[in-house]
Amino acid sequence: MVHIIPLFVGERRLDTGNAVQYPDSSPVGEAMQQLGDRWQAAAERYEQRKAQQQAFDTEIAARRLNGELAKAEADAVANAPADGAGLHDAMYGQVDPYTGQVVKTGLFDTLFGNFLKQLPPELRAGLAGRKEAFRAVGGRRMAGQQNQRRKQYEQDQVAEVHTAELRNISQSDPNDTVAFDASRQAGLDLIAKMDLDPRAKALAEADWRASTAKARMQALIAQDPRRAAEMLSAGPVASDGMGETVRAQLGADARDEQAAAKGDWRRNKTPDEVIAQAFGDLPEEEQRAIRRQADAANLALKVKIGAAISRAEAEAPDHIALTGAYSGNIPGEEAYKIVYGPDEGPKRRQDLEWQVNVAKKIFDMGTMSNQAIKAAIVNAETGSNSSPDRKSDEATAVAGKLVLERRRVDSGDYISDTSQEISAGWKAVFGNGPSDPEAYDQDTYDRTIELSVATQKALGVDDENLQPVPLSILLKLAGDRDSGSMDLMDNYARVSELFRHTKGAVAQAALVRELDQAGLGGILPGGKPGLSPSEVFRADAKAIGKETANAGILAGKLIKGGGYVVSLGSTERPDFGHGYYEPANSTEKVMMRQHGDALSWGLGEGVAKGIGRGIDWFASAPRQAERSAGVSAAAKVRNSEGAAGEIRALDGTESPADGIPAKRQSDETSDALDSISGQAAESGAVVGQNSTSQDIHVYHMRKWDASQREKAALKAQRLTDRDTSVNHHAVRDSNPARRRYTEAGNEVAPDEDVDHIQDLQLNGSEDLSNLDALDRSVNRSFGIQIKHKIKNLPHGTKINKVTIGDR
Questions:
Q1: Is residue 73 a contact partner of residue 145, using CB atoms and an 8 Å limit?
Q2: How many CB atoms lie within 10 A of CB 85?
């Protein structure tokens, strides 16, 4: 402390000892008295100033002490246990509340004593007197810290327990009411033991009930979105405030009310009601959010299940028919109900089961001969009428007819699909790309085609239906030829050499017909392989003569048949089953069939084909199946009595499997006349002989992916939407379509062609508006297939619609 007044001055007093005394009334005495008063005042002022300075310095010291105590408290809090236990006592000790005596010292006592020793002596007493005041204030502060830590500790522990219980609820079966109640009660019991005021405790309990109700409903949404959506679809749910809630829309009958009055609120409740009893504890806004969540999950589930169903329906039957098994998932009846409802769902599931059953039988028939399959069909159609056996017999009959039909119209691909050796052989013959050096080997071709023909004959395929090379391969060759690529054209020439050296008269004749079907008639000189005159040419010449004669015979019978129709059956019915020239051998039989088609194409709208095709169309149109081939049609060919229905051929004609043995074409024409005359008799109208419109159905390529299938469907729809008709005289613009399309600023991807939206052969134009980019494979497949479909139709025939499906 700095003393402003010198000590010796402050200690001075008027000396009245041996000094001369002067009367107070004398001038000297009066002066001496005044001097003494002044010294006394100065001394008092010094004492006051000294006390003020000590008080100030003591306060500064106290503030420094408070700073040290605050730092010590912060350290104590940081190092204290999570629940704050012992925090107050460790810092400020314990004081007997009755005597005020310190019974346990703390860190405060140590800090205070050390601080006091550092002070000047004159300040120690003043600060020492304030020690207990420091303790009292700091003790209250530290007690507050300890209580706060304890509350935070309890909240953290409750939150951890609640999180665990909510996780248990979300992962448990929402139908397990016992487990749910146990988890909810565990949380409530913990809240009851917390140091909370009544209002805070009520809020905490309400929040916990809402959280558990939400977790349970979310668990139900995850387990069964449809059920959750149905439960929550009727609106708000009532709550009793105690966690035992009841859905308003479900209500309660008198029996439930009596049970509730007895305290048994779960008696006679359905499982859904029990689950919903907690849902009312959620605020209305939360309830709406959960409903939206349930609806969204239900929609997502329907979409997911619908996609799985579509995939199974599209893939499973064909995979099973081809390999005997399906690696994907086939949804069950409950999945079908979710997507299609309780009525339609089981029916669709049964249809899929039927198709799968047919597919299994198709696979089993893969190595059976046609004769054995026909015997199995006859046995199935005359078998037991008992329900299980009847369904199996129906599947056998349908499967058998499908296999026979596939072998009749697509035997080459059928054998390739069912024989790995033949399939590998064709892959080796035609290679893996335009520049495969191992491709187009004559020896490999000879071995593969020999095995293909031998296998088909072993299965009982007629010579006239033989396909030495799979038709799909030939269609691809035709598409590659139209692309104009130099590499592909080079391969086209190499393939021509292979075909030209085909061995075996029947194989050669069958290949000629197959090449013509694929639009590759010009790949060989004159459309025929170079065979010896003693074999095919001789048979060819005879076939031309016989088929020409038969055409004349048929023309006469058709004219007579026309009179029979107009007369409504009153005149003599012509015999279409007899009176024709027959082939002498299998080679001549193939050639006669080929030249029969040639005559029909040449006559166009003439007698040989026009009237016959019109009659055939009128007879067969009412019975056309939705899909004429492929296992996917199996469920749709059953008639109303459940018996196996008729199987239509890929080209729209009757399948040989419909009647065993097979009917000749003349018999079919005869049946058609019967059908027409019957219709005319009923209506009293004269039935025309020619159809004026046709439908076209084309097929997916097996290699197409989902994107290509989608583009093919769009192509078919575009053709259906337009006014299309057969145009056998279309003329292409001298300026290539691709050039005109790109010069107009349009882009064409490397794997795309410039397509005529409405094909020229279907009376489309060369206008720029009729051009669009299309996947190359889709474009070329459509062009070739449509060309094949309309080649026998008269020019100008209207096309009603164009559809596409699997084989």
A1: yes
A2: 14
Distance between CA 346 and CA 636 in Å, rounded? 16
Name the DSSP class of 699: E
Structure tokens at 558: 């058709």
Sign, CA dihedral 433-439-444-450, equals: positive
Q: Are 398 and 634 in contact (CB under 8 A)?
A: yes
Query: What's the confidence (pLDDT) of residue 448?
Result: 93
| Angle, in degrees to the nearest 10, between helices 121-128 and 27-79 | 60
The structure tokens listed for 460 are 């009982």
Please tell me the distance from the alpha carbon of residue 220 to that of residue 176, in angstroms, as a whole number.
11
Q: Which residues contact 769 (CB under 8 A, 6 or more apart)?
A: none
In tens, the pLDDT along 516-538 reads 888 877 776 544 444 443 444 45
Cα dihedral: 445, 447, 450, 456 (round 10): -90
DSSP state of 693: E
DSSP 85-110: TTHHHHHH-EE-TTT--EEE--HHHH
Find the angle CA(31)-CA(33)-CA(37) to the nearest 5 degrees.
120
Taking the CA atoms of 372, 378, 384 and 387 in sequence, report the sign of the dihedral they define: positive
Tell me which amino acid residue 293 is.
Q
Longest dimension (CA), the chain: 188
Most confident of 452-456, 656-660, 683-687: 452-456
User: What HEC string does 201-266 produce?
Assistant: HHHHHHHHHHHHHHHHHHHHHHHCHHHHHHHCCCCCCECCCCCCCECCCCCCCHHHHHHHHCCCCC
Residue 131 in tokens: 């020690």
pLDDT in tens, 740-756: 999 999 999 988 999 99
Q: How far apart are CA 763 and CA 87, in angstroms?
A: 97
> What secondary structure, in 3-state letters, does 19-37 show?
CCCCCCCCHHHHHHHHHHH
276-285, 397-406, 613-622: the lowest-pLDDT one: 613-622
DSSP result, 171-186: HS-TT-HHHHHHHHHH
pLDDT at residue 570 greater than cutoff 70: no
Closest C-alpha to 431, from 420, 421, 419, 444: 444
Rg from Cα positions in the chain = 52
Between CA 343 and CA 749 the distance in angstroms is 47
What letter represents residue 179's amino acid?
A
**Residue 325's pLDDT band (cuts 50, 70, 90):** very high
Write out the two tokens for 632: 């996917």
> Is 121 exposed, middle or buried, given 0-12, 13-18 or 19+ CB atoms closer than 10 A?
exposed
CA distance 124 to 58: 8
Is 631's pLDDT higher than 60?
no
DSSP string, 736-757: -HHHHHHHTT----TTEEEEES
Compute CA distances 357 → 320, 347, 394, 419, whole Å: 9, 15, 10, 22
Contacts 24+ apart (CB under 8 A), 477-482: 477/518, 477/520, 477/523, 478/518, 478/519, 478/520, 478/780, 478/784, 479/776, 479/777, 479/780, 479/781, 479/783, 479/784, 481/520, 482/780, 482/783
pLDDT one-digit tens code per residue, 434-444:
566 678 888 99
pLDDT category of residue 576 using cuts at 50, 70 and 90: very low
Burial of 463 (0-12, 13-18, 19+ CB in 10 A): buried
Q: Please give the model's pTM, rounded to 2 decimal places.
A: 0.47
The answer to whether 166 touches 215, Cβ cutoff 8 Å, is yes
More confident residue, 672 or 65: 65
